[in-house]
Amino acid sequence: QVQLVESGGGSVQAGGSLSLSCVVSGLSAAIPFTFYSMAWFRQAPGKEREGVAAIRSDGQTTDADSVKGRFTISIDNDANTLHLHMVSPKPEDTAIYYCAAARWYPQSPLATGGWPVWGQGTQVTVSS
Known about the structure:
Elements: E1 3-7, E2 10-13, E3 17-25, E4 37-43, E5 50-55, E6 61-63, E7 71-76, E8 81-87, E9 95-102, E10 117-118, E11 122-127
Parallel strand pairs: 2-11
Antiparallel strand pairs: 1-3, 3-8, 4-5, 4-9, 5-6, 7-8, 9-10, 9-11
């Protein structure tokens, strides 16, 4: 069974930088990590979970307008790891960040419904 574990969350000042990682385990030999599409979502207190960025198995990415030019999603296929590099975070980026995985890239990659596998989340707090 595929499992996702996020790390790298913490506190950061606005204008700084922070990187999140998500390690994928439980993969089968028949369906390796390179066959998966991945995504980052976030959920702030009292708000719905929203898509941050997604990356297709061929490397195509989709970013939410709110993070374009500031956050970068990437994959390390050798380490079965998804990354999110956050530059110039803002207080409104404060949330629990979750990674998600899917065998097939959803038609709406920033919607939660197309992602069947989720991590447990990691807290990111941005102070002004």
